[in-house]
Amino acid sequence: MLQNDAKRTASQVISTLAIVGPGLIGGSVAAALRQRGAVGRVLGVGRNPASLDVALAKGLIDEVVTAEQAAQRADVVLLATPVGATQAVLQKMLPFLQPHTILTDAGSTKADVVEVARKVLGAAVSRFIPGHPIAGSESTGPAAAHAALYEGRTVVLTPLDENESLAKDVVVEMWKACGARVLVMTPEVHDTVLASVSHVPHFLSSVFMWQVSTAVDSDLRLAVAGSGFRDFTRIAAGSPEVWRDIFLSNREAVLHELREVRAAFEQAESALQQADGPALENFLERAALARRLWASRSGLV
Amino acid sequence: MLQNDAKRTASQVISTLAIVGPGLIGGSVAAALRQRGAVGRVLGVGRNPASLDVALAKGLIDEVVTAEQAAQRADVVLLATPVGATQAVLQKMLPFLQPHTILTDAGSTKADVVEVARKVLGAAVSRFIPGHPIAGSESTGPAAAHAALYEGRTVVLTPLDENESLAKDVVVEMWKACGARVLVMTPEVHDTVLASVSHVPHFLSSVFMWQVSTAVDSDLRLAVAGSGFRDFTRIAAGSPEVWRDIFLSNREAVLHELREVRAAFEQAESALQQADGPALENFLERAALARRLWASRSGLV
Q: In this complex, do B236 and A287 lie within 8 Å of one another by their Cβ atoms?
């Protein structure tokens, strides 16, 4: 397929890429692939004209097309919209997909996306490779997109039994060309671990920010908030729409994890209620050691 | 007092400063004052010889002395130890304090420090100006100290009715010379607002880090943890001893605030349980707007 494309250069992974939602996530894929010469033409699909103009002006996309046109013309389609939009986009595209078109996504949850893709695409799900780049920023939109976003970061792919191995290879190659490390797991495992290390932190940070900002003395509180507060609440600035969809999509796993966190919360709270210094220090010590070990291993400082 | 000191230069605020615990917090005061020429001699008091050696080698302190010697020789004594050590240090110093010696501290809680200071110092509490610089880092010790730590940051002072105004002025001047902005409030208000914007975030971040790291599949979880996790858990790496003391010192205010946070947690959890999209988005939207507004106002990005 791609191998037969006359326009393909030595390092080119994809001849024509369509990005549905060329914002931070999708736009950064385009920027990274362009920088490496790994993509030919980039088509952009979106509902916000101002945002598409920014993507054009930054050179992230070459032209704006409809979902239908993208399905007809692209070799690879990357869905980089909030997960709630997946179904509608796939439905629009399905009748126009070429036999060789590969589909992938960048959604933060996977089991629900897989369910939707199977339902909408039918047999064509063999060319839908579900994915999730573990990268982002509290800044959103194409203005924040940049070629280095995925450099050294992890991208999780959750391939399906039905997937064609060539389609898988192309998506793996695409992410590697962006500088990412690819991890493969099932959609269910993905959703369980992401509920823990991504969705619960966003939930807690947002709950906390909401509680502080609605207190009667919130102005004074916020005036003495320092760098710890800054770091702890940074994720709470993320897109409410995107995160609403994530929580709803991964509801069961998040609720399960919140129950686990609440049990830990209550254990620590009880140590504080009893003014149990050794128990408090023990819990703080374990948390501090685990965090320091993670920092040294992950390279995310 | 200081005005009569022959060694004082035009910009010098303090002739001889003693720092009890010249680590990140105390050492950075020394570094900042030295850079501005605002201090003459700096004496260091501590219990960890290796740490004192680093402070000497970095030029943060000029010599190592005992608490008794510091009381005899210093014009200003800055206590920069975990708050649990305040009582023992003040007791050692009291018999040796000069009539002009000014005392201040950098403890993260204030009501308990004031209670201890009143009890130990008696009438001499008139020269104890309680303070709390809202600055820090997950790195600790003199190796992490640097002159810019307080640049543009907030220092809360909680002066007492008994305080001499000259003593207050000197401490205000000291922090301004470090580049900080000084806010004045009562010890009780300080402890209430800090419980909210500092102690609760540390509690939640540590509880979460502890819960993740003790899960059976913690390795996989930590392998897909990204930048949101990194920011949210950064404070959990802080000193367990320091934070144990903070929680114990400000127990009532922290427990009260945890109950408020739990109520907000349960409200958001209930919206998720009911799959109530508009309620979820509303809460996420309020949190995001509040966080973005705070970032633009605080200058802490």
A: yes
Is B122 found in the same domain as B244? Answer: no
φ, ψ at A106 (rounded to 5°): -125, 25
User: How far is A13 from A171, CA to CA, in rounded Å?
Assistant: 9
Q: Is the ipTM of this complex over 0.95?
A: no
Task: Let me know whether B155 and B216 are in one domain.
Answer: no
Within this chain, do residues B155 and B233 fall inside the same structural domain, yes or no? no
Per the structure, the count of domains in chain B is 2
Closest-CA residue of chain B to A301: B230
Contact B221 A193 (CB under 8 A): yes
Q: What is the pTM of this model?
A: 0.84
Longest Cα–Cα distance of chain B, Å, equals 73
Domain around B119: 2-185
CB proximity A279 to B under 8 Å? no
With CA atoms as reference, the chain A residue closest to B287 would be: A210
pLDDT 10s digits, A180-200 = 999 999 999 999 999 999 999
Are residue B289 and residue B196 in the same domain, yes or no?
Answer: yes
Min distance A101 CA to chain B CA atoms (Å): 29
Hey, is the C-beta of A187 within 8 angstroms of any chain B C-beta? no
Q: Do B55 and B144 form a contact (C-beta atoms < 8 A)? A: no
Distance CA A16, CA A14 (A): 6
Q: Determine the residue of chain A that is closest to B291 in CA distance.
A: A237
Q: Of B185, B220, B235, which closes a domain?
A: B185
**Does A9 share its domain with A52?**
yes
